[in-house]
Amino acid sequence: MSRLDTRDLVEKYNFRFTKSLGQNFLTDETVLDDIVNGAEISKDDYVIEIGPGVGTLTKELIQRARKVTSIELDSKLIPILEAELSSYDNFNLIHKDALKVDYKELIGDEKNVKVVANLPYYVTTPIIANLLNEELNIKSITIMIQKEVAERINGEPCTKEYGAFTLLCKYYCDTKIIRLVPPSCFIPSPKVDSIVIRLDKLDKPRVEVEDKKLFFNIVKQSFNMRRKTLWNSTKSLGLEKDLQEKAFADAGIEPTRRGETLTIQEFANLANAIKNVKSK
Ligand code: SAM
Predict the structure, then answer these.
(1) Ligand 1 centroid distance, CA of 71 (Å)
(2) Structural domains in the chain?
(3) 126: how many CB neighbours lie within 10 A of its CB?
(4) At what angle do helices 241-251 and 264-278 cross, to 10 degrees?
(5) N or C terminus of the chain with fewer C-beta within 10 Å?
(6) How far apart are CA 100 and CA 145, in angstroms?
């Protein structure tokens, strides 16, 4: 089966790019191959693609996967995708904002679900956060994202990249960088370098937390004001002083430390200790 050529399609349909929709379409075939190979797509897989554009990556996925559902917001792209791809019986197109899709319903009882996307950069973090927070039955998420966002996902304690988003990804996933992608691989060229990264969902979260909401609330408070000590950032939880002191002692964490110095395990220990003193 032949490939689709992004430049040809843009010309054929006289497509006009909308910058605000993060429309940078892939033109480099080696990147297409690296995404599909990096995602390890096979005939067992159900692929959900976000933002198919003119369908270049979509067609590669259709040929390799059992079934593909693509979600596209731009109404100008819908007739193009229908014309080019609707003849494939393993392809479905949803015309919708990817942030408003009910993924639980879309996935249903499907097995081997993988998300693959060259994401629109203006919604990268909310899309990843949605996919992870909803605890969906997804095996992996292979995405093209801004290099800077990939660095945040892989951030280490005590670096400026390390933050609440790092901990969200670390809590649910292992990560693997597939490749760097320069601006010249897209039309129009973005201003930044991109990275293809795969997030592999862990069978169970990386750390055991008794109260997930509390854990992520503590993480959020700790990074909202990075210069604050943990003692100050956990004050908003409204604990009495002696209980707050006990929680820090039980967790073995100095209250004068800042959140950005804590490993995910230390955040879990602190959250569990706070949960424990609260429930007594
Ligand atoms: N997959 C194509 C490729 O690799 O050439 C296009 C990728 S382009 C970076 C992002 C795509 O996401 C565009 O087709 C854009 O219209 C679409 N898009 C933007 N915002 C979206 C949203 N909120 N929900 C779904 N699709 C969106």
Answers:
(1) 8
(2) 6-201 (3.40.50.150), 212-278 (1.10.8.100)
(3) 11
(4) 140
(5) C
(6) 20
pTM over cut 0.70:
yes
Angle at Cα 19 formed by Cα 18 and Cα 25, nearest 5°? 80
Q: What is the mean pLDDT of each run of 10 residues along the chain (280 residues)?
A: 89 97 97 98 98 98 98 98 97 98 97 97 96 95 98 97 98 98 97 97 97 97 91 93 96 97 98 92
| Cα distances (Å, whole numbers) of residue 109 to 133, 158, 196 | 19, 41, 28
Q: Best mutation site among 28, 50, 61 for ligand 1, i.e. most ligand atoms within 8 A of its Cβ?
A: 50
Ligand 1: residues within 6 Å at CB? 6, 21-26, 50-53, 56-57, 71-74, 77, 97-99, 118, 120, 123
HSE (side-chain half, CA atoms, 13 Å) at 177: 15
Both tokens of 211, joined, read 């109260």
Provide the CA 233 distance to its chain's centre, in angstroms: 27
Farthest-apart Cα atoms in the chain, separation:
70
Q: Whose CA is nearest to atom 17 of ligand 1?
A: 51
Angstrom distance (rounded) from CA 147 to CA 168: 18
Q: Whose CA is nearest to atom 6 of ligand 1?
A: 53
Q: Looking at residue 163, what is its pLDDT?
A: 97
